[in-house]
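Q: Please design a sequence for this.
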């Protein structure tokens, strides 16, 4: 089994190289999902979480006071703390529509989010259209291969075909949103949401596992934590705890295999 840094050297996509390298340098496989609705809160969280994270995950369309300055400042903070911005947009439409949603509209996602994601449900041509927009901007994409919510339909054939689709566009698709390690190809990065120390579920179908379960038992690379961190009393302290737990689990996985 290869380290994050060894895997960085095998990648071609610039975002994958940067991400795996900075994970090694900062000793973190923690991504925080900052699902807040005010710009100021988003930027303040980005600043305080910066030292602990490799990826900041946004849902830019839930902000009630979005303006262009939001993303300019977010980019500055990302540069200062050396993390990747991941807009969790989950494109799911035909190629023409998905690529317009990626490049145009109010958000111009392709201009500031080095990483975003798409469902595979619309088929390979939709990913090809997204790639046409994103690759020339040195961006990357994740495919949603599995989900954390109860009763979701992304399993079996759907997941296997999604992995296949990723291989078809591996210069642009650098990994998956998933619940388990899906491929032995070391250039694909596995991201897992639904992470909380307490495990359990929320009242709306979200299912949680611990960092240890996701990294050691399910073999994934990056844990995505939302409410487990941003609703904590001491956000920085909680982020540090998840960062340490995630890193320890990675070291444990490496020496076990
Ligand atoms: O299957 C998924 C895929 C994603 S990207 N399940 C998820 O929960 N997510 C996202 O991860 C979700 O949109 C949210 O932003 C985050 C989980 O948040 P939490 O508060 O439940 O940790």
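A: Design:
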């Amino acid at each position: 089994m290869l380290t994050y840094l060894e895997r960085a050297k095998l990648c071609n996509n610039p975002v994958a190289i940067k991400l795996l390298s900075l994970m090694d340098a900062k000793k973190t496989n923690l991504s925080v999902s900052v699902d807040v609705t005010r710009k100021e809160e988003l930027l303040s969280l980005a600043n305080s979480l910066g030292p602990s994270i490799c990826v900041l995950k946004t849902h830019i369309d839930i902000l009630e006071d979005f303006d262009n300055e939001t993303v300019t400042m977010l980019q500055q903070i990302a540069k200062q703390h050396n993390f990747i911005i991941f807009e969790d947009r989950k494109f799911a439409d035909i190629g023409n529509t998905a690529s317009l949603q990626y490049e145009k509209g109010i958000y111009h996602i392709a201009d500031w989010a080095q990483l975003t994601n798409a469902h595979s449900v619309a088929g390979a041509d939709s990913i090809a259209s997204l790639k046409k927009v994103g690759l020339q901007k040195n961006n990357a994409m994740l495919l949603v291969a599995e989900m954390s919510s109860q009763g979701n339909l992304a399993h079996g054939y759907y997941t296997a075909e999604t992995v296949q689709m990723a291989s078809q566009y591996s210069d642009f698709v650098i990994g998956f949103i998933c619940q388990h390690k899906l491929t032995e190809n070391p250039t694909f990065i596995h991201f897992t949401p639904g992470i909380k120390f307490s495990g359990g579920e929320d009242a709306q179908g979200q299912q949680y596992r611990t960092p240890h379960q996701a990294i050691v038992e399910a073999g994934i690379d990056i844990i995505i934590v939302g409410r487990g961190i941003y609703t904590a009393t001491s956000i920085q302290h909680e982020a540090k705890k998840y960062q340490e737990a995630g890193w320890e689990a990675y070291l444990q996985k490496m020496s076990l295999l």
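Q: Thanks. Anything notable?
A: The chain has a mean pLDDT of 98. Residues 235-256 form the longest helix (22 residues).
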